Amino acid sequence: MQAKRRGMAMEKQVKELPLIWLLIGNLVESTGMSFIWPLTTIYMHDYLGKSLTVAGVVLFIGSMAMIAGNYTGGYLYDHKDARHYLLLALTLSLFATGFLVFESGWPYYPLMIILNNFAIGVSGTIVNSLATTIKRYDSRYVFNLMYFMANVGVVLGTLGVGFVINISVRLIFIINFVMFAVFFVIASLFYKVPKNDKHHLKQAKQGGMKTRRYAVYIITAVLIAYFVIQLGYAQWQSNLSVYMEKLGISLSKYSLLWTINGVIIVCLQPIISWIDEHYNVDIFKKVYLGIGLFVVAYSSLIVAHAYWMFIMSMVIVTVGEVCLFPAIPTVVDKLSSASEKGKYQGQIGIAASLGHAIGPLFGGVVIEHYSYGILFTLMALGVFMSEGWLILCRRLKAKIGD
């Protein structure tokens, strides 16, 4: 009898997507993408001779394409064969990155970047949704590790691109293609929808159980907070560099802030994961703490004028990021019904992409008509209000009902 039970347990484990390959795939894809995204603006401006405005338009369209991919990926996961469409999306990425190896001039470069962004939106949402099928571990543990591996990839990619670009720009495109090829092989071999989880696909097709109304309100509040935070985070990646230059702080020192960001994430994330695993910290406490730290960090920019102040602000931002960003897909996973996992995991990507798309334009308009101080004040106030709305939604849970 015991032998039979062990055999059944092993069979159950085989049916479940292996976490290790999910993490390796996440690392490979993140590393490959991190060879490309820092290059986009510089490549179009310095190599293709296009204006920064044109580069900004391409980045905006790319973000919109990723949003479309996030939505499409969520729909496909809930209603179709997830693995089939994941491989199809990765095939599109292989085509786009492979094309750039041989032809990276205008207008092929922006077209392939936009196509790849759409494909990444689809594949990223499906992979996040597949992560919710892993039952051997708590979802917060899974998403903590995925976030950690993605950031290790960012650190490796952004460090590597500086060395590779001195050798050859084409070599960057080759590396990007190879990374997606490796990811495709991993996905084709190991990313299979578990048999014991396929029932949720059937439920979705037949109009299965929807996410409860109170849960939809809370998820929406979380996504609004995430969007507002990403709106502010986009200022760090765009307008803040100009502001620091005006204060006499060099571009190299600005770049160092992102190195600090990556190092803190890689060092702190395993500690946070260990605390989660051993002390079972309430997930919403982490969400509140993370959002609160973003309020403090954005507020600190209002008075920042020396480099050490920007370092402290970046440290606070990064700690808030480590607390909040992996917690968001966990919260969404725990609150959404089995038939709508893909839908709401896709909306996480949409919130982030929308914030990154609108952020630079929003910041530019505010700076042009008012000031940097007003921009930082609006960022802090927006995040503060979104946290208040989330707390209110949770307290009204009983009144909202099912």
Written account of the structure:
With 402 residues, the protein is mostly helical. The chain folds into 2 domains: 17-208, MFS general substrate transporter like domains (Growth Hormone, Chain: A); 211-396, MFS general substrate transporter like domains (Growth Hormone, Chain: A). The protein is 83% helix and 0% strand. It contains 18 helices and no strands. Helix 12 runs parallel beside helix 14 (307-324). The longest helix has 29 residues, at 139-167. The chain starts with a helix and ends with a helix. The model is unreliable at 1-14 (pLDDT under 50). One of its GO terms (cellular component) is plasma membrane. It is a multi-pass membrane protein.
Furnish the topology, listing elements before pairings.
Elements: H1 2-15, H2 19-34, H3 40-47, H4 52-79, H5 82-102, H6 108-131, H7 139-167, H8 169-190, H9 199-205, H10 213-237, H11 239-246, H12 251-279, H13 283-300, H14 307-324, H15 327-335, H16 341-369, H17 372-395, H18 397-400
Number of strands: 0
β content, as a range?
A: under 5%
Helix content: over 70%
H/E element sequence: HHHHHHHHHHHHHHHHHH
Largest sheet: none
**N-to-C CA distance:** 43 Å
Specify the structural class: mainly alpha
Radius of gyration: 21 Å
Q: What's the structural domain tally? A: 2
State the CATH architecture of the largest domain. Answer: Up-down Bundle
What is the approximate shape? globular
List keywords for this structure.
single chain; 402 residues; mainly alpha; Growth Hormone, Chain: A; 2 domains; 18 helices; disordered N terminus; MFS_trans_sf; transport; transmembrane helix
